[in-house]
Amino acid sequence: MDKLTLLLLILFLGACTTKKNVPTAEEHKASSFFDLETYFEQEVARLDAQSYRLKKQLKIDDVQEEQILEIVNFEEELSAFSRLNINQPTWLDKYKVDSILGATQQLKAIEYLALDTMMKTRKLIVEYDTQSEVKEITIHNKSHSFIMNSEEWLNYQANKGYSIETKQNILFFDDKEILLEAEYLSKE
Fold first, then answer.
1. What is the pTM of this model?
2. Which of 30, 42, 137, 140 is most solvent-facing, going by the fewest CB within 10 Å?
3. In contact, 151 and 142? CB cutoff 8 Å
4. Dihedral through CA 142, CA 178, CA 61, CA 118, nearest 10?
């Protein structure tokens, strides 16, 4: 199995869930957590309906590979994001929530910062456009154990694509840097 296939398999394993409604930016003012799982379920449906192709670039240390996918399984592609849903009732006290308002008091972003260093997702930022639609989602994960330290930065831009950057330090092995970038391309 080549490196790209193995990495994609590891990054994109996810579970199916039932459909829910994603609140607008205004409704988020009253809630504690943004529901990543629901948001990405809706993104999958939207992207499938628009029949995007996907240009993917994978860089592992100094080795780079690129491919264009004509048929895309967006549920699999975006599962790396939806599986990081922090919208759990037992985690209400694990994150500090900060709403960022614009000059007109319109919600521009919601930032979640982990208060507990044992939480894998350390930071989640949801940015909104002027129509109160999600514009960008940024996630910072960090995990550590006796044999491995890992940091991961995920960035999703609606209608553009996403990137996942991972840095791993594994005991007795060379450090690894992995960058996956995916860009949505319209069908020609």
1. 0.78
2. 30
3. yes
4. 10
What CA–CA distance (Å, rounded) separates 159 from 54? 12
Q: Which of 131, 122, 126, 156 is nearest to 32 (CA)?
A: 126
Task: Compute how many other C-beta atoms are within 10 angstroms of the C-beta atom of residue 22.
Answer: 18
Nearest residue to 182 (alpha-carbon basis) of 35, 43, 62, 49: 43
Burial class of residue 25 (count of CB atoms within 10 Å of its CB; 0-12, 13-18, 19+)? buried
Asked if residue 160 has pLDDT above 50, the reply is yes
* Contact (CB, 8 A) for 77 and 12: yes
In tens, the pLDDT along 62-75 reads 899 999 999 899 99
Spatial strand order in the sheet of 63-69? 63-69, 53-60, 176-185, 161-170, 148-157, 134-144, 121-128, 107-114, 95-101
Here the tokens at position 151 are 């940091």
Contact assessment for residue 18 and residue 153, using Cβ atoms and an 8 Å cutoff: no
Residue 173 CA: distances (Å) to CA of 10, 23, 149, 176: 19, 44, 12, 9
Q: Are 163 and 180 in contact (CB under 8 A)?
A: yes
